[in-house]
Amino acid sequence: MLNAYSSNKNSVTLLAMPSEAIEALKKDKYFCPACKQPVYIKNGRIKLPHFAHFAESSCSFYTEAETQEHLALKLMFANWCEQQQLPYEVEKFLPALNQRPDLLIGNLAIEIQCSPLSIQRLIERTKCYQEHGYQPLWICGKKLSVTYNKLSELTKNLCYYSEKLGFYLWTADVEEKELILFYHLEEDWSKKLYAAKKTWKFYQKDLLAIFNYPSRAMLHLQRKHESGHLVKAYYGELEKRLIRRDERVRSVQSVLYNKQLHILNLPYWFYAPGLNVFCCRHSDLLFKYRIWTVVRFFDQNVVCAAELLAALRSEIQQAQELFYPLPNITAEQLQEYCLHYLIKSLITCGHLKRQTQDWIVTISSDTKLLDQVERFINKCVISATPIKNVI
Q1: Which pLDDT band, with edges at 50, 70 and 90, does 60 fall under?
Q2: N or C: which end of the chain has fewer CB within 10 A?
Q3: In the predicted model, what is the mean pLDDT of the chain?
């Protein structure tokens, strides 16, 4: 805890205060902003100076378990604001929300996440900020950043989305003194992550301008994937996991089996392009099945574009239970992402063809799966560019 109230009810912060001045403050009495119980100043040589509760305290709001990385990043962001003369508050307790963002800049609530947090708690805190007019901005510390080209479930749920940058994630490196933006995030069938990266050194640029970057930047990025090889590897892995009786694959197979389908005998579109629908939990096969039922209804017909899009949007809305919660991304944003992604892949696989204002739908095919894989084996899928309007 970096802030507390003095005996005369003034707010006192220990942030960036010289050690001698902190020692002088110890003569007064201080109280927790949340529980109003007495606290005292800890001014050791290892940890940053902070207020701590007494052992008998029953306060459930403030904990003393913040990492050094967390405390150091708070100090660095506060110093950044100081340098720019940007009005801010550290650990401002918001009674109506019963929350205290690490840094509050106007209605921007910055939360630096350096340790594990339950997904449910993340959702609750994010929604609470949003409902009270605050814009939460989550920044990952080193342990929750992109590691070994993978995203943990918590980190996945800390992602944001914009039409220009796709899915993106904020992180900070306390050792390198860098604020980092990973953008155009994509995953293949194995959940291997593909990401572009932009960094800013602390204190060198306008902080709010950096945070506004995803809404105004247009970074075109062409990422080539050898789709045929990805699909072939995906299919082979599904076959192996089915033999090993992998529980996740078996659960998908059980649903498909009830629909008289087999996980290894689906149309090529189910496996293509080897990239997973980013917002889907685990495999996206069940989500694609639901979309397939809609498209199949229009098979061998010329259908009005508006009618097809309305049917797909309705099905996407009903498939929300297959998605990660992603509390920082609106349902409308996810819907539009899925819609463009699915239509683009249906066009690539030859199931949709544009005819003036209508679509020609063709899903029937007697071509064997492996023959279709060979047809795409030397072809690349271009991805990670800002969404092209294909609808």
Answers
A1: low
A2: C
A3: 88
Which amino acid, residue 344?
K
Residue 369's H or E segment, with its range, is helix 369-376
Of 301, 334, 330, nearest in space to 319 by CA: 334
Sheet holding 11-13, edge to edge: 11-13, 3-6, 30-31, 38-42, 50-53
The C-alpha atoms of residue 100 and residue 98 are separated, in whole angstroms, by: 7
Tokens of 28: 């007064």
pLDDT of 61 reads: 66
CA distances from 259 to 265, 280, 342 (A): 13, 21, 21
Q: What are phi and psi of 126, to 5 degrees?
A: -65, -50
CA distances to 78, 85, 94, 218, 375 from 89, in Å: 8, 12, 11, 32, 59
Backbone angles phi, psi at 53, to 5 degrees: -75, 155
**Rounded alpha-carbon distances, angstroms, from residue 332 to 26, 165, 323, 338:** 52, 16, 13, 10
252 CB neighbour count, 10 Å cutoff: 19
Distance of CA 98 to the CA centre of its chain: 24
Q: How far apart are CA 101 and CA 93, in angstroms?
A: 7
**Distance from C-alpha of 43 to C-alpha of 73, rounded to nearest angstrom:** 18
Matching residue, tokens 């939460």: 136
The residues that bridge with 94 in the sheet, in sequence order, are: 99
| Site of tokens 């390198």 | 176
Query: How large is the C-alpha radius of gyration of the chain?
Result: 25
pTM of the predicted protein model: 0.86
Residue 264 CA to residue 242 CA, distance in Å, equals 9
- The H or E element that residue 19 is part of is helix 19-25
271: amino acid identity, one letter:
Y
**Amino acid type, 337:** Y
Return the beta strands (E) in the chain as ranges. Answer: 3-6, 11-13, 30-31, 38-42, 50-53, 89-90, 103-105, 108-113, 135-140, 160-162, 166-173, 178-187, 193-201, 223-226, 301-304, 352-355, 358-361, 380-383
Which tens digit of pLDDT belongs to each residue from 103-123? 999 999 999 999 999 999 999
**pLDDT tens digits along 276-319:** 999 999 899 999 999 999 999 998 889 998 999 999 999 999 99
